[in-house]
């Protein structure tokens, strides 16, 4: 195995093969092959699929309108007061 990976556009797959096409491993494995292995003359290697959610996009969407709910100056005062109280 060459361990090459790529992102697949699921929407493009649906548009190409139709919404009724199977989405299980055996439905898709024959559609994909490694171009690097093919040009190197290696026999067809098995393809594997792993779904990795777009956490970065979800985080970006979730934090888009986030505003801090605390006052930074009060936090700094609390820290300095606690340092004074500890005797440092």
Q: Beta fraction of the residues?
A: under 5%
Number of helices: 5
Strand tally is: 0
Mean pLDDT: 76
How widely separated are the two ends?
A: 60 Å
Q: Whole-number radius of gyration?
A: 26 Å
The helix-and-strand class reads mainly alpha
Helix content: 40-55%
Principal-axis shape equals: elongated
- The helix-strand sequence is HHHHH
Main sheet properties: none
Low-confidence runs (pLDDT<50, min 5 residues)? none
Task: Give a concise summary.
This protein is mostly helical and 88 residues long. 45% of the residues lie in helices and 0% in strands.
Task: Describe what this molecule looks like in 3D.
The longest helix has 15 residues, at 72-86. It contains five helices and no strands. The protein has helices spanning 10-17, 25-28, 35-39, 55-62, 72-86. The mean pLDDT is 76. The chain is mainly α and 88 residues long. The protein starts with 9 loop residues before the first helix and ends with a helix.
